[in-house]
């Protein structure tokens, strides 16, 4: 299951990331300013954000299997259509359509993790899922560079449209809505998952409750007992949900600026060749894969299912790394190393934003909570990609890095206001 999730979302992430590598060539053909290029990058995420909350309601009512497979097929079709466009308008329409098509995928993945994995493995599984989000951009720059040199920018989208069609069929036949429906889930595995879930329901305990005593850490992160949010009204009224949503707004914003603009930055500011650009542009995402997996392991095993510590570490360290990029070296090896470390630190706590609502909600309410957090994140990605283009047209890259540093520090301040949920035993009184 974990392997299939990783492969599927690597492909989905590649379908959205390939625009960043093609963007310098698209801008030449369609004569775009920085602001127009930023708007093009933002269109995907605006549409992606629009799809989140409806997807959460749809999954809650119709469950995952059919919706997820259909979404993957449409994602592949819109990816291929981008390579056929003859005008900037059609390019924008296809990019918007891609965002709507791909929007249901993350809620489907996290809902599947919530149903299929026991509590002590959910952080690691989500870290693996979000590592795939970053592994897509690892393979995109070198593959796209080769395709561009051999053919052109349009062929990028034809190449990347094919794997998703095959994987949509694999998901439909291999992954059921619940492990109890799957012939591939053994009786012992099913008993382990369902027995754990039964204990949680009986005790009214949060899904990922810490048991190891770390009193100093619990005081720092404002750990407190919670009763699980069980309906839509409770979810929408929770500051913990909205605080994490606002934090995710800024963190995905930073990630998307790197995703959409790093290839352009390397070619126009650092004057790297296409091949050097492809190699260096992959560096932050190699680091991101490591950061997501390590962060998920630390969250589950080292600090015993606490989520806020990694989120806070990421916010502070990213503040420093974004400021450091103001003085980025021109040497491809040194700059690649700096971006690699940036990717690790940026992603240590990244997966925690998707796991955090699991500790506040019942499984029934989780898709709604997850869709709210992810909507905020995608809106952040859309807004900050556009703002980057506006800043570049008026100022320069130093101001972009300072802006991102301030955004990351704002996330840290927001995280101070939300709680780390811990078990609340319902005694029946």
Which descriptors would you attach to this protein?
429 residues; mainly alpha; 2 strands; globular; disordered C terminus
Q: If you had to describe this structure to a student in words, what would you say it looks like?
A:
- The protein has 429 residues and is an all-alpha fold.
- Helices cover 77% and strands 1% of the residues.
- It has helices at residues 2-30, 34-62, 65-82, 88-102, 104-116, 119-150, 154-174, 187-203, 215-220, 232-236, 239-268, 274-302, 308-324, 332-347, 352-355, 366-394, 397-415; strands at 223-225, 420-422.
- A two-stranded parallel sheet has the order 1-2.
- Helix 1 crosses helix 11 (239-268) and helix 5 (104-116) runs antiparallel to helix 16.
- The model is unreliable at 200-210 and 424-429 (pLDDT under 50).
Regions with little confidence, pLDDT below 50 for 5+ residues: 200-210, 424-429
Largest sheet, strands/sense/barrel = 2 strands, parallel
> What portion of residues belong to β-strands?
under 5%
Structural class: mainly alpha
């Amino acid at each position: 299951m974990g392997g299939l999730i990783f492969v599927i979302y690597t492909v989905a992430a590649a379908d959205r990331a390939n625009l960043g590598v093609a963007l310098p060539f698209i801008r030449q053909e369609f004569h775009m300013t920085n602001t127009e290029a930023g708007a093009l990058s933002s269109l995907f995420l605006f549409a992606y954000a629009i799809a989140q909350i409806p997807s959460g309601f749809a999954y809650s009512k119709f469950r995952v299997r059919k919706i997820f497979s259909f979404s993957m097929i449409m994602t592949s079709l819109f990816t291929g259509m981008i390579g056929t466009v003859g005008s900037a308008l059609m390019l924008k329409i296809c990019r918007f359509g891609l965002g709507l098509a791909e929007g249901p995928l993350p809620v489907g993945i996290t809902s599947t993790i919530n149903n299929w994995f026991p509590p002590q493995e959910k952080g690691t599984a989500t870290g693996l899922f979000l590592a795939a989000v970053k592994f897509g951009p690892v393979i995109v720059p070198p593959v796209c560079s080769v395709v561009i040199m051999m053919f052109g920018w349009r062929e990028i989208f034809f190449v990347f449209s094919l794997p998703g069609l095959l994987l949509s069929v694999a998901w439909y036949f291999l992954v059921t809505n619940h492990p109890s429906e799957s012939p591939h889930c053994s009786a012992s595995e099913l008993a382990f998952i369902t027995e754990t879930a039964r204990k949680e329901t009986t005790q009214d305990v949060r899904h990922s409750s810490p048991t190891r005593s770390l009193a100093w850490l619990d005081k720092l992160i404002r750990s407190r007992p919670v009763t699980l949010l069980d309906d839509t009204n409770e979810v929408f009224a929770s500051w913990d949900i909205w605080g994490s949503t606002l934090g995710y707004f800024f963190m995905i914003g930073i990630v998307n600026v790197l995703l959409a603009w790093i290839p352009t930055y390397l070619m126009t500011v650092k004057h790297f060749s296409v091949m050097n650009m492809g190699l260096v542009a992959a560096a932050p995402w190699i680091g991101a894969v490591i950061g997501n997996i390590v962060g998920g392991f630390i969250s589950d095993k080292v600090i015993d299912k606490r989520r806020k510590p990694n989120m806070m570490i990421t916010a502070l360290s990213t503040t420093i790394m974004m400021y450091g990029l103001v003085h980025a070296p021109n040497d491809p090896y040194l700059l690649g190393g700096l971006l690699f470390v940036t990717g690790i630190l940026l992603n240590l706590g990244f997966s925690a934003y998707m796991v955090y609502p699991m500790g506040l909600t019942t499984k029934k309410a989780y898709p709604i909570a997850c869709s709210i957090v992810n909507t905020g994140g995608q809106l952040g990605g859309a807004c900050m990609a556009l703002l980057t283009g506006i800043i570049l047209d008026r100022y320069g890259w130093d101001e972009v890095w300072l802006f991102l540093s301030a955004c990351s520090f704002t996330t840290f301040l927001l995280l101070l206001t939300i709680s780390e949920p811990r078990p609340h035993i319902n005694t029946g009184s």
